[in-house]
Write a structure and sequence with these properties.
Layout (H helix, E strand, L loop, with lengths): L3 H5 L4 E5 L4 H11 L6 E4 L6 H10 L8 E4 L2 E4 L1 H9 L3 H7 L6
Parallel strand pairs: 1-2
Antiparallel strand pairs: 1-3, 3-4
Protein name: Monothiol glutaredoxin-S6
Subcellular location: Cytoplasm
GO cellular component, one term: cytoplasm
Length: about 100
């Protein structure tokens, strides 16, 4: 199985999600609103999704989705991403990761 590290390597933004999770959808909408290109892995649609979900939980993601990586670093879930947005820090983080240019 590909490790989480392999899945996020060389990608500015990665979101691990489930297609039925409204918080995952909200976080994806927020990040794409900046014009950021992101890679989304829908765990409920991947054959190894359960293994990836277990690995995310072992990394401290509770709940397991959404799990957001920016610049190959685990940011966390919806609460952490929304906190960055409220503190006006999300855009700068996306810029540093090369996800947005403005």
């Amino acid at each position: 199985m590909e490790s989480i590290r392999d899945l996020v390597a060389d990608k500015p933004v990665v979101v691990f999600s489930k297609s039925s999770c409204c918080m995952s959808h909200s976080i994806q909408t927020l990040i794409s609103g900046f014009g950021a290109k992101m890679t989304v892995y829908e765990l409920d649609q991947l054959s190894n999704g359960k293994e990836i979900e277990k690995a995310l939980i072992q990394m401290g993601c509770k709940p397991s989705v959404p799990a957001v990586f920016i610049g190959e670093q685990l940011i966390g879930g919806a609460n952490q991403v929304m906190t960055l947005q409220v503190k006006n820090q999300l855009a700068a983080l996306l810029r540093r990761a090369g996800a947005i240019w403005v």
